[in-house]
Amino acid sequence: MGDSSEPPFKKPRFQSVEQTTFKLEAAPTPNVPERAPRLCPYLDTINRQYLDFDFEKLCSVSLTRINVYACLVCGKYFQGRGTNTHAYTHSVAEAHHVYLNLHTLKFYCLPDNYEIIDSSLDDIKYVLNPTFTSEHIKNLDSSTKLSRAIDGSLYTPGIVGLNNIKANDYCNVVLQALSHVAPLRNYFLREENYSKVKRPPGDSSYLLVQRFGELMRKLWNPRNFKAHVSPHEMLQAVVLWSKKTFQFIQQGDPIDFLSWFLNALHKALNGSKKPHSSIIYKSFLGSMKIFTRKIPPIEMDEKQKRSLMMTSEYQEVQTESNFLYLTCDLPPPPLFTDEFKENIIPQVNLYQLLTKFNGQSEKEYKTYKENFLKRFEITRLPPYLILYIKRFTKNTFFVEKNPTIVNFPVKNVDFGEFLSADIKNQHKNTIYDLIANIVHDGEPSKGTYRVHILQKSTGQWYEMQDLHVTDILPQMITLTEAYIQIYELRTT
Fold it and tell me: What contacts 24+ positions apart, CB below 8 Å, involve 8-13?
């Protein structure tokens, strides 16, 4: 009781600390954030359901891309954070106080203008910029773990819907299919794989590479706030770099888009004509020999034809050609059906279509003044083989669709059957399994597209049509009007 020692927190000393702190914090200059980060009393106003960061990072008022902040209360983008900027005005007018700089990934409280450092905001940073470790990527095709979105719904990373802005389902199905080509996906999941690619001055096609990488990371993000992704930024880059050939406001053809997109990515990654010059060629590039010979005009008699066939112009010419996909021709559907066959849909076996590439079968090709016979011999099979089943024929007046159903197995397709003995000996493996199947439904001009995707970890097939994702039996896949297929070479 009579202890005269000082209490541990002596009043004068406490006051002096407070005064010192006050001097350090005195009157910060306007529009300059303070050095010491503060805890923010407004963190509970953040609404994660409004945050997806899928749209172009530009100010919703001034449309500038410089110094853009996301309001974490309503999800809109605004420029700046100093006095009289759009973000500052929004914070005062709407009493929305928490903002994220979309470039530096730093959080700020407005209008007070100080930086917030709080580990509870890390999930927001991860949604904006998901990152993947090598270990994580290695386990993607064996993990069966489900993720939970903010609304409580469960989803499987990689099996998520893509938003259809207006008429971009033809792009969505291609992007979904490519996101399950393992080497391509693994390459784009880590930005460091392509961040050092140098393009010539003034060439910004590298933006296409960046946007595709961002989309891949969003599709495979295990911590997404929503169970779907909007490909808005990716498609903006597509519209820009295809010079508006491909739009998201009008329907296009997936094979045209796929062909352009693979070549554009290859060039943007500084790919050359060499087979291993980019991840695109490493994954999809095969090669073939093409044998071409000219056919004499029909109106000539046999003697004239024979003499023409002896000339060098009519000798068979052999050329080497690379391919990123193989075009399979459907037999023409029957012109007439009797009363008993009117409901029967013509069918053809996939192996029948592939005989085109056995080096023996000849196919006639016509130009406006000359006719040719061509045969194709595959000389190198790629790790991932894309088949394009040609369903549409265009003439002067309209586009016609061939409804023939192609019967194909989803596993154990042996392409070795179409290789010559010498070529087959050069291939250790020739058996492929289907991993993606793009389907066209409806009329040629106003149909829709959907895609079937194999989830490798469970062996389950899923059907994806824009935002709709449902599981499907493999037997049902073979009954659809297949349009583009991706097969994976089995190496074990």
Answer: none
Chain segment 466-482, per-residue pLDDT in tens? 999 999 999 999 999 99
* Nearest CA among 79, 202, 220 for reference residue 138: 220
Non-local CB neighbours of 230 within 8 Å, separated by 6+ positions: 52, 54, 55, 162, 163, 165
Q: How many residues does the chain have?
A: 492
Q: Give the rounded percent of residues in the chain with a pLDDT score beyond 70.
A: 90
CA 443 – CA 399 distance, rounded (Å): 9
Cβ neighbours for 150, distance < 8 A, ≥ 6 positions apart: 48, 49, 225, 226
| Separation CA 171–CA 157 (nearest Å) | 20
Tell me the chain's radius of gyration from C-alpha atoms: 30
- 313 contacts: CB under 8 Å, gap ≥ 6: 294
The DSSP output letter for 36 is S
β-strand partners of 384: 488
CB neighbours of 257 closer than 8 A, spacing ≥ 6?
Answer: 170, 171, 174, 238, 246
* pLDDT tens by residue, 93-141: 999 999 999 999 999 999 999 999 999 999 999 999 999 999 999 999 9
Contact indicator for 455, 464 with CB cutoff of 8 Å: no
